[in-house]
């Protein structure tokens, strides 16, 4: 090819850009990626791991993807989110049934010989919403930290979790998507510089790379969001009817009964319940007008016969010193029932399996809101609400994913906290133990009444400390068998 002299600069720039574009080759073909803004990491987006689950494959187990057309895949544009059944993630944009893709971020200098730790991220959203294209989950900064991050899309709502045996719909489609995505990672991640070692392989060190979803995923996310009894749940659970279920095959046993079978971290945010509770009000004035009758109704509606037991331990008098006592009471009950108590139960059962576990409490109050459904004016009231830890684990503290016009950004201390948390999570992926050279994270040890549990407290800094589960355990333990049966947790 002869290029006219006047076009040489343009041609040379194009050639240089093409040469700089990262690429990897896997069984399906060559994948072309892009550069992160820092220049220290690269990304590959919307890599299909399964055939589109449409027409005859709708409601079926996902099928592994074949070859890329022409042997090449341009992986520089974000994947569509799977069809949504909620409105929390308003900024996700395009949705589609053809959504079974994954994103990968790697250090720019990673090679097939790097054998870097691999962190696999499964987004939350009550199984009805969310997606890997959410900029909150961007992995450029995680890759800067010397690890590989993989984020996996999976089917949601009825397309992902409906089971109707009479129609031949067996359920757990979304879980099968994730398992197939993990299989793709195991088979292909070495091409990106990752360690393809699987924790189920006894020749490997503990906890490396991909996870056994059936052992770990539910014991954290699933247990956090459901207590096992339809009459003992909070409103957000009543409105979301799509859940994984024990089918004897994909999920052989109730996760709450068996715990994790690989090293695992269990944790919660100090004010998890504040997200759902506070966002129901348009202003702090409206939230302040909530009456004691509203609290009583909340307990009766959601805990039925156990309402009086719970109110004994969570009386409104305990919250009168807070700016919004009724909101604080509802939020605390929701936090303990949905997140804190299940975290303890999961960790306790895991160590009974002679498998190490670690627990944490995230208490930091962020400077900026992190979801577009959160008014900045409520930031002090939200505190360490549900999902507050995500910007820190991913290193995304510019917070423009909540509001593109926002100039709010993390403080220097918050960036330091984020770096510490990313390092701990990377250590867990690398060696099955989250401790680093700088920070020792003590292993979980159950105590008689759940008090004085050693773990990690993420406040303004990452500090090993004591986490108190005792009051919350009495909620279900002291009133056995009635309360234990109602709540459905094995302690």
UniProtKB/TrEMBL annotation:
InterPro entries: AB_hydrolase_fold, CarbesteraseB, Type-B_Carboxylest/Lipase. Pfam families: COesterase (PF00135). It comes from the Eukaryota. Residues 1-18 form the signal peptide. Keywords: Signal. Residues 21-199, 202-447 form the Carboxylesterase type B domain. Gene3D superfamilies: alpha/beta hydrolase. This is Carboxylesterase, type B. It comes from Akanthomyces lecanii RCEF 1005.
